[in-house]
Amino acid sequence: MKTILWYAVVFSMSVVVVTGQEKQGQIIADHFEKDAEGWHIYDFSGGPGKRDIFRPVTWERSGGVKNSGYIWADDSRWSIDTPEKPHSILALIHYRRWVKGPPLDMRDAEVSVYLRGDKLDLKGAKCYFWVNKPGTRWHLTTQPLKITEGKWGDKLTFVCKNDEKLWHRSWANFPINLNDVLQTCHSYGFAFVGFSEKVTGKFAMDDFVIQLAPR
Asked: Which string of DSSP letters, residue by residue, matches 24-47?
C-alpha cells in the first residue's frame, strides 16, 4: 500500500454489544440494515498520481440474507495490489478508525459472514480473510472461503487462530509477527489471491460478525 487518498468517507458505528474498550465476549456485528457500516473497496492505483484510494461499496436496502440490507463491490472499483506477495485484490476493506472504534484483539476471534458472487469470475483466485496492523498484513490462507454464485449460500464461520503456520504474510513495509497484528488489529477484510488476471464481476457480503475471545 502507498500514500492514502481518502474518498467519500461517511460512516456510522457498527453494532457493538459493549462499548468502549474490549470486554469479555464483545461482538462486532455489521448487519447493513441502515448503511454500509464503514466498508470500502481498495483501489491500489485509483487516485491522482497513482495514490491509493478507498472507494465506497454499494449499499442495498434489501436483497440480502432474509431480504435484509447488504453491501457489494465490483471490478469497476477494485484493482490489483502489486506490492502484495502474491498479488492481491482487497475487494472489501474495513478500518476500525473509520467507525471511531479502537483496534481489536482478534486472537482466537470467531468470524462469521455470508458471501455471494454475481457473474463473479475469480480467474482461478481464492477468497481469504486478512488482518492488518499498520506495516503488515496477514492472510488466513488455510481457510479459503466459498463464494456462492447467484444466491446467498450457507453462513461461513472460521476462527483467527494465533498460529503463523495457518497464515501468510502478504505485505510488510516493516515485518510484524502475527501475534502482534492480531492483538492490535486496525484493519481487516476479504481479498482475492491467486488469479491469472484481474477478477471481474460482483462480490457481495451480509451479516459480518466478529465474536472476540474472552480475555
From this structure: TT-EEEE--SSS-TT-EEEETT-S
